[in-house]
Design a protein that fits this description.
By secondary structure, the protein is mainly alpha-helical. It has six helices and no strands.
Length: 166
């Protein structure tokens, strides 16, 4: 399968999970949330998790049989159109892309089911943390700040800084 098709399938996965996470953050309870509202949020998330796990079971069953669901084929067709991929329906390349989309679809729903109950230590999340570049530090490192603090504390404990033990 060509790298453009793989990139499209990966981008779909990231876009879906990131979008759901934004929605979850926007609906996060605040200090004014009542107990009834919290119970409703919990039930909604639990129902979402149950639905996601059911989708995973169906997709994994189809994957074990070497079959893709209609939703996977429709999603594959949408990706082909959206990214203007030169892949013919029914070709070997198309079938590979369907399998890649199905694999990502399973990952997406497994991850979503865990995020719904607050678990962000899924294999997807861990892999994403490792693959994201660490931003360059534009501020002093914590270790250098601690050293400065310890030095200042040590100096302040002695009356005459010139007679500090070496």
């Amino acid at each position: 399968m060509n790298t453009e098709a793989q990139r499209a399938a990966q981008e779909f996965l990231h876009t879906f999970i990131d979008g759901n996470e934004r929605k979850r953050q926007e609906s996060r309870p605040d200090a004014d949330t009542t107990v009834e509202q919290l119970a409703e949020i919990y039930m909604h998330r639990k129902a979402g998790r149950d639905r996601a796990l059911e989708i995973v079971r169906v997709l994994e069953y189809g994957q074990a049989l070497g079959m893709e669901s209609d939703s996977v084929r429709r999603l594959t067709d949408t990706l082909i159109r959206h990214y203007d991929l030169k892949i013919e329906t029914g070709s070997a390349e198309y079938n590979k892309l369907c399998r890649e989309v199905q694999k990502n679809y399973i990952t997406m729903w497994k991850t979503e089911s865990e995020h719904a109950v607050g678990n962000y230590d899924t294999p997807y999340d861990m892999a994403r943390r490792v693959s994201e570049p660490i931003p360059e530090a534009d501020k002093p490192l914590l270790s250098s700040l601690i050293e400065l603090y310890v030095d200042a504390k040590y100096i302040s404990q002695h009356k005459n800084p010139r007679k500090l033990p070496r």
